[in-house]
Amino acid sequence: MASPKHKKSKMRKRQRVAQNEKAILASVQTCPVCGGLKQAHHVCPQCGTYKGRKVLSVTAK
After folding, report:
1. How far, CA to CA in Å, does 32 sit from each of 11, 12, 54?
2. CB neighbours of 12 closer than 8 A, spacing ≥ 6?
3. Model-level pTM?
4. Most buried residue among 7, 41, 44, 46 by CB atoms closer than 10 A?
5. How far is residue 57's CA from residue 46's CA, in Å, rounded to a whole number?
C-alpha cells in the first residue's frame, strides 16, 4: 500500500475541510411555508414540512 511521501500542512487540510462547509452553506434556502432557513431537499426543522406537505410533527420550544 502506498505511503504519503510528505506531510500535509495544516493549511492544506483546513482548505480541504472548508470546501465541504461552503457546499452546505450554498444550499441553504428559505422555507416557503414558515420562512425559516432550511437545507435544500431536506425537511424544514422549524415547521416540519417538505414540498408543502406536513411530514414531521415539530414541538415548539
Report:
1. 39, 39, 12
2. none
3. 0.55
4. 44
5. 10
- Here the cell at position 29 is 434556502
Burial tier of 24 (Cβ tally within 10 Å: 0-12, 13-18, 19+): exposed
Q: What are phi and psi of 30, to 5 degrees?
A: -95, 145
Q: What are the extents of the domains in the chain?
A: 30-61
Q: In sequence order, what are the residues at sequence separation of 6 or more whose Cβ sits closer than 8 angstroms to the Cβ of residue 52?
A: 32, 33
Strand segments (E) across 1-61: 28-30, 37-39, 49-50, 53-54
Confidence (pLDDT) at 60:
67
Give me 58's grid cell.
415539530
pLDDT tens for each residue of 29-57: 999 999 999 988 999 999 999 998 898 88
